[in-house]
Amino acid sequence: MITDVRFEDEANVIRKVCRDFCRKEIEVSALELDAHYDLEKLRGILVRSVELEILTMLIPEEYGGVGSSVLAAAQVLDELAYGCAGVATIFAYHLAALVALIEGGKEELLKELSAADSPQPTMLTLAGPDMEEREDAPQLVEAKNGLMLKGVIPLVASASLADRMVVFVREADAGLTQVLVDPRAKGVSVQPDEELLGLHTVPFADVVFDGCLVGDADLVGERGKAEQAYKKARAALNVFVAAIAMGTSRLAYSRAYDYAQQRWQFGRMLVDHDEIRRMLANMVTKISMGTAGYSQALKVDGTGTVSSWRSDLAKIFCTDAALEIAVDAIQIFGGHGYMKEQGLEKIMRDAKMLQVLPESNRYMEVQLFGAKG
Amino acid sequence: MQESESIYRFMNKETDIFENVPIMNILKKKFPAYVDQAVDAQRTGRKFAREVIAPRALETDRRCSEDPSYVDLEFYHKAMEAQIPTSIFPKKMGGLGWSTLAFGLWGEEAIAADIGLAALVTFNLFAFIGACVEFRPNVVLHIVKLIVEEERKGNPFFFGWSITEPSGGTDQEHPVAMAASRPSIEAKKVKDGYLLNGTKCFCTNGDLARLICVNAPVDRRRPLETQATFLVSTDTPGFAATRLEVKCGQKASHTAEINFTDVFVPEENLWAPPGEGLRHAQEILSATRGAVALIGLGLTRGVVERTVEYASQKKVRGHRLIDEGWVHYALAGLMTDILPLRTAIMNFLVAIDFMHVVRMLNNPITDIALKISPAKLINSDLVEQLSGLGPVASVVKSIKNKVVSAETVDNFLRHGSAVKPAASDLAMRAVSVCADIVGLEGLTRKHGIEKIFRDAKVTQIYEGPNQLHRLDVFEREVGYDYRRAV
User: Which of B245, B327, B436, B473 to mutate: most A Cβ within 10 Å?
Assistant: First the structure.
């Protein structure tokens, strides 16, 4: 019987713990949070995750963190996404921001994050850089008392939830700069949450920077030298989104498989129809290959570094697969699959969002080749 | 107020069927009134969609999300003023006398604006076709009169058609599946009628309908041999809409579970007698699957139009999003499918007008009868009663069976079962491709693209899942008997 497509790390303790956490904390609230965004409930889940050290797992041991790899974090997100892709996405943006801070050498902050004894964890998120070359994209402006940030970033994930925001600013003459912003600071305004197709657990909102001061302590690394940090953070985010797509796909698949074994149609069990078997087999194939794909998204140099190129491929493959899997899972359920209570239409909406996070797969494909790549 | 020019050039026209379905030019020479009416319906539909449907679609969707029992009655009244819910009834009976083609062209425009609202005012027609299929003139006359009278008074008259069982809808649409199924509902023969007991699910308008056409076997152990069709008045004791579904999309149109506890149905409301229930359902489906294809087409157009609009206004990398090559190919891939599919569907609708049940309303005999009789007489109780008399009814029935032979129905089932999956699969592909083009910002609620994404999926499921339709096509193409399948 192929009900479990996790083909590795079964003994991995972190994974097991996360799976239990997911069952207890996330699965039960997923549909409710999808229907009504509830910050208190969400904060409750984040607070209870502190014990599991998910939020600090990427911080190196010397700064008091767990020192896990990006791939280990991705596997954790895969587990969490089985409960809710949205909740996992909040973790993903936090962890990707950590990658940027680690690369930027933000030691003090990293120590502070892992040592925090407050029950409320400090949540991070990642914003920018602007890939669309918008006219109002954020810029660093020289002012009397230092640098100031001016501009708008549309639809920042976790915007109204985050305590700190890692912002990448691209300047025509100075290159890419990483800035740490307190979203509650003067000169920053987080607009009301936007309603989107899916990932309703993640508050997405435009963030307007209207002359917010950027002190030396807010610069992460040198001005104009953040290309590497961004590349790493983006590669990590790609792998995380791919893992989330696989986690949510596993849920769709296991639901569809169970249903196909219970439902009688045309004088036989659904699972005994070749067409349904084809769909289920297709799901397993995609989940297995996708999981292998993101788990292997490393450079070939043997250093264990995540490869930008492979992370792009994994993100494209896994999120495309997730939508196809969700659509087929609904088809197996028939009319019931279209109803909110089954949770499958949520997976479909979430999967579509993952395909365009942080950029549309179709545009990523165009970017994989050529001068811009 | 004049809308601003759209980059999508067909959007700026009042009608486009002569360009998009070229055979209409030829048809117009032979049947000018028929084509003129269709063009007029498209023009009306386009205006109605732009002025009435589009401005309220998102708000209605939101209200239905908050409260699934909300009905946009204000909208229904606007549609009634335009006589849309009764548009296909003959003029002399109080309708607009629209052909299926005209109705389809109006519908396509409405669906492209919003399927939820379009469904609210058009899905009644499925049940009306159910009445036409049996074609007992007194039944048809009675129903038409009832609906027209009520809606003239300003009372919406919802009509449902319910075949899906809690154990499955697919089983209700195929003989092999039906023979192997165990429906929950059963009709017991009693004096002067039947008692219905059991549950049906996913009934459109189930909570709003005054009349519902229901399939039920007389012996649930032999559903295929004993399936019958009943007309149930929902104010009959024992009937209850027990649950309203909370759906992913198409929220403005209600879907309910309905329950029957000793619901008495008088003998005259037995439409298809025991054993004829599946044939009755298939005859309806042979016409309506093509209509559901129209929904897929309308949704595809709706999402493509919005995406073209969005991409032509959205600035990226110093140019418009629509100026990027990958966007051209993504959209063109959909447009190249819209064009042939629309021709196929319009072809289907024309065929319904000339070859299927609605021909009964347009055939020479009915035409002459309608022409020479004053409206008052046609709509009188006397004619309704006379036409219910055995001899009259059986003559009309035999004409109907000649006009719409079993072979005709079968061929329509094949065509309908081909265009429906083609259109609904295209709709699903279109919403996904368009979401990829517009990206995160385009998927915020205000652009309406996310709503069409939610609306589209169920078109692959309702009116039978696409898997069943493929099977229906295969059997009819190859002359294959599914009972031999291993």
Answer: B436
